[in-house]
Here is the input.
Amino acid sequence: MTPEQILEQCRDLVGQPLGAVAERWKAERPGGRVVAAYPVWTPAELVHAAGMLPLSLLGGGTSVELTHADARFQSFVCSIAKSTLELGFQDIVKGIDGFVFSNICDVARNLGSIYQRNFPGVFVEYLHLPQNSTSPGVTAYAASELRRLAAGFETAFGLTLTEAALTKAIEIYNVVRARVRALYAFRIAEPQKLSTTELYVALRATTLVPPEQAIAWLDALLDGLPRRDARPRDRLRVVIEGAFCEQPPLGLLEVLEEAGCYVVEDDLLLGWRWFTSDVPTDGDPFERLGAAYVNQSVPSSTRHEGREHRSAGLIEKVRRASATAVIFMPAKFCEPALFDYVLMKQGLERAGIPHMIVEFEEKMWTFERTRNEIETFVESMLFD
Here is the structure.
């Protein structure tokens, strides 16, 4: 298939209700189970090793009208938390057997228990991910949490999750992540041949299919995209930072590019490309995954990283992508992103890297003011 055909399939899949994706997969596999994971980090290997389908749980986007969830939250809570709960009230996630939440922030910390209280018939587990990377016991703790989650799967669904199956799952997802890294490297080198909206749609679709299907799509894209006929344009090379949890509307990403930006790095869908290199497959797979979470992960606002300044990872990302500027894109009311913005802003200013901030929410549908702000920023950089 051509890249255009694959991207069309991906866009169609991303537009489908999450429950419909789950039920279609289960219809082909009687007795199969599906587990959806809330961002940021997704332990997809554990779900796959147990013979289940892992899906990304990324809220309702623009397709869900809030009619029930607002009453369960304060007014100053991010959109993704409300729309994720609304998916349950409207039966849009019917067909999904389990949900995994983790300690991204205070809202996510409580969302798991709220989900369990309102939908007692489904499996809900809360993964206590380590926050302090400098603690001597952090790797062992992370491994113990993964073992606890695996035991929860076995108890709830009557499945067996062996170390051999988990090792195999790690090998498969290493391939997926390697292909994703290659796709990101291609966009850095030739952004005129792969737009960020196309890359985002492709990656989001890979979180809705078995990893074997994801590998086939990614391989076909890596094979076909270099042959696209596209000339480089005079655009501003930028890095998007702050969209690691709630995902921006596609329309906002399109506006960024229409306003004169080449997005050459980002933290979109961070949870499905958390590791910067292959996870080792020798030894205890739980310990290997736990160690990788601590030592092979991308910098994130969801975790305390005391080993270097918070802006160091962002500055390295800018340099690696040969970017000129940073566009901070935090979701409204996202405390981790907004708290880190202060530290990142200080670091960028010391490094002489221009930046601007654009807040969003997933139900945002008009972008004219944002377009004007971005166009002004781009013109000030390109024609100064």
In short: The CA atoms of residues 356 and 377 lie 8 Å apart. Strands lie at 34-37, 53-56, 98-102, 123-127, 236-241, 261-265, 325-328, 355-357. The chain has 14 helices and eight strands. The first strand starts at residue 34 and ends at 37.
